[in-house]
Amino acid sequence: MLPEARRGLQDDARRMTDDLTTFTDEPRLITEPGRAARVASIVEPVLAGLGYRLVRIRISAFSGCTVQIMAERPDGTMRIEDCEAASRALSPVLDVTDPIETAYRLEISSPGIDRPLVRRSDFDRYAGHVAHVEMGAPIDSRRRFRGQLLGTDGDSARIRVDGSDGDADVLLPIGDMSEARLVLTDALIAESLRRSKHGNRSDSKHTDTLDHDQHMSQTQGRLTNGDRKRQ
Q1: Can you tell me the distance from the alpha carbon of 38 to that of 229, in angstroms, rounded to the nearest whole number?
Q2: How far is it, in rounded angstroms, from Cα 105 to Cα 67?
Q3: What's the chain's Rg over C-alpha atoms?
Q4: Which of 85, 89, 145, 174 could form a disulfide with 29 if both were Cys (CB 3.0 to 4.6 A apart)?
Q5: Mean pLDDT of successive 10-residue segments in the chain (231 residues)?
Q6: What is the DSSP letter of 52?
Q7: Which of 75, 114, 115 is nearest to 197 (CA)?
């Protein structure tokens, strides 16, 4: 290989590494309280080491207790093989750290189409789509907002809200939001299908690689492990 070509490959590799580091290092501005925050502090660095980043932790009473870990790749998706890799890395770490006081089921999933928005870049990436936002404290006596995302302005998201007096643009501080997520629309579904058309073919090749105690939902990008018992 010519020296110029070798240097070009090395430069490309460095750029890819820098891009991945920037991706995994961007902080979440909307986070979870309590037990979910404990789990997040454990799993976030493990996911970053794999090249993924945490989107959300949700602990529910489904099937006794389910710990859902929602993660994503740089393109915003999480394929079945990615869920499987994350599960293999996270399961032993969670077994050792034992952040949940009862037996639970571990679920690794993709963000989904109507995904949560937790980082500043999320609000820029999905500008033009409709979002639902709940604020932790009222803004002009209002906690809930629904409208078209117009990107960000500093640490706030700009949303065009429909009202009785016509459309109005509002700035909502992202750090003050308790929840934000995309609203399922035809435009959002169409964009998601365009992004995932190649990934779906890849997913179909991995249906036989799971352990006997794992269940996979291929259409939702979700992997559920068997019960994890406290030691």
Answers
A1: 18
A2: 6
A3: 20
A4: 174
A5: 58 54 90 95 96 96 89 92 96 94 92 95 96 95 95 96 78 97 95 72 42 44 64 42
A6: -
A7: 75
Q: Are strands 142-153 and 130-139 parallel, antiparallel or unpaired?
A: antiparallel
Q: Which residue from 175, 163, 178 is spatially nearest to 133, judged by alpha carbons?
A: 178
Burial code (b: 16+ CB inside 10 Å, e: under 16) for 92-128 equals eebeeeebbeeebbbbbbbbbbbbbbbbbebbeebee
Contact 161, 146 (CB under 8 A): yes
Pairing of strands 66-72, 142-153: unpaired
Could you give phi then psi for residue 114, rounded to 5 degrees?
Answer: -90, 60
Q: Reduced to 3 states, what is the DSSP secondary structure of residue 30?
A: coil
The DSSP H or E segment spanning 173 is strand 168-173
